[in-house]
Amino acid sequence: MNFSRPNIVVSKCIEFDHCRYNGDMIHSSAVLDLKEFVNFIPVCPEVEIGLGVPRKTVRIVEIENKRLLMQSGSETDLTQKMYTFADSFLNSLDNKTIDGFLLKTSSPSCGFKDSKVYKSVEKGSSVRKNSSGFFTEKAEDIFPDSIFETEGRLENFVLREEFYTKIFISAMLKEVLKRDNIRELIEFHTKNKYLIMSYSSAHLKKLGNITANREKKSVAEVYEAYRKEFCEVLKRNRRTGSNINVLLHISGYFSEKLKKEEKQFFLDKVEQYRNKMIPLSSVLSLLESWAIRFDEEYLKTQTIFNPFPKQLIRVTDSGKGREF
């Protein structure tokens, strides 16, 4: 299967350059794996605003309910410099081509909902740990429909595969939307039926109504309506219950073709997945094997079985951050 190449903005310190405050480079097997399949756009906002390597640490400091980006030692306020660079850099990118951002965990510039906020630039414990960095904050404003993730969370098997799924399906849709052909959009929707269902049955129905185009809208209007609705799908995360619903739907294709023992084996696997004993991919692989065995052409085209290149599959797992 050929996959469209996602365009991903990535923190430069993750496998691209020794540009962390202490001169280190962050190692990430996920980023190394993705390099073959993704167009990365590396950036280090702190270096871009003139900070050297190595450099004094930078902190998000909250003073009188106002967030500031400040550097220890000199207590330099870098807030406006960072905002100015972020605006310039992000607006230089094509909004229609960026699929996602892969950012440095907890960074005051690049963190995504996990950066620490302090009362003082020099000492003291953080007052909270759920802020986004100043560069990321601007990225969220300018690219509200992109997929955001941090390299630390990608150490978790479930979160990693969720990120892969979203960026590759986003890139696939962008390729379709480049072409003025409603049939290709319908084909995209058809191939992604069960993947979309695993996120939301309600959104699947809405997207189906958009492609049906009963109101006879122009192709451009249909495309934009579909894009907006699909972006809402990608803002969601798949849950165990919705995944099981999809598994049962797909199994219905084989209800008259399987032995009683095979059906029970499948249901046992579903329960093992429900109880977090096995990954979703284990049950999907079983269903895919039956689609091949019984030559179910419609099912064999479904992206839910192969949402991203198989070379990216790794069973390593940090054991942390299973919940979205």
Describe the model.
With 324 residues, the protein is of the alpha/beta class. The protein is 44% helix and 13% strand. The chain is globular and about 75 Å long.
Estimate the global geometry from the Cα principal axes.
Answer: globular
How can the largest sheet be summarized?
5 strands, mixed
The total of beta strands comes to 9
Q: Which range does the strand content fall in?
A: 5-15%
Rounded mean pLDDT is: 94
| N-to-C series of helices and strands | EHEHEEEHEEEHEHHHHHHHHH
Q: Class by helix and strand content?
A: alpha/beta
End-to-end Cα distance? 29 Å
Contiguous runs where pLDDT drops below 50 for at least 5 residues: none
Number of helices: 13
- Spatial order of the strands forming the largest sheet: 5-4-3-7-8
Radius of gyration: 22 Å
The residue fraction in helices comes out at 40-55%
Q: Can you tag this structure with a few keywords?
A:
324 residues, alpha/beta, five-stranded mixed beta sheet, four-stranded parallel beta sheet, 9 strands, 44% helix
Write a brief caption for the model:
With 324 residues, the protein is an alpha/beta fold. It has helices at 29-34, 45-48, 79-91, 134-142, 157-177, 182-191, 193-199, 201-212, 219-234, 240-251, 260-274, 280-293, 297-300, and strands at 7-11, 39-43, 58-63, 66-71, 76-77, 100-103, 115-118, 126-131, 147-150.
Layout of helices and strands:
Blueprint: E1 7-11, H1 29-34, E2 39-43, H2 45-48, E3 58-63, E4 66-71, E5 76-77, H3 79-91, E6 100-103, E7 115-118, E8 126-131, H4 134-142, E9 147-150, H5 157-177, H6 182-191, H7 193-199, H8 201-212, H9 219-234, H10 240-251, H11 260-274, H12 280-293, H13 297-300
Parallel strand pairs: 1-2, 1-6, 3-7, 6-9
Antiparallel strand pairs: 3-4, 4-5, 7-8
Helix pairs in contact: 3-4, 5-9, 6-8, 7-8, 7-10, 8-9, 10-12, 11-12
